[in-house]
Specification:
Order of helices and strands: EEE
Number of strands: 3
Distance between the termini: 20 Å
Strand order of the largest sheet: 1-2-3
Protein name: Porin
Shape: rod-shaped
């Protein structure tokens, strides 16, 4: 998802879901949610 602030600036938001990360016997296994928000500059 993104929102155009101006011709050169856009705000961006992302969500990634990573399933079954890790080894259950060694490090443990889990699902991971990654949320990120940031600017995108265009030149």
């Amino acid at each position: 998802m993104s929102y155009q602030v101006s011709e050169q600036l856009r705000l961006r938001a992302d969500w990634d879901l990573l399933l079954n990360v890790g080894d259950e016997d060694e490090t443990g296994e889990a699902d991971i949610n990654v949320f990120s928000v940031g600017p995108e500059f265009r030149f």
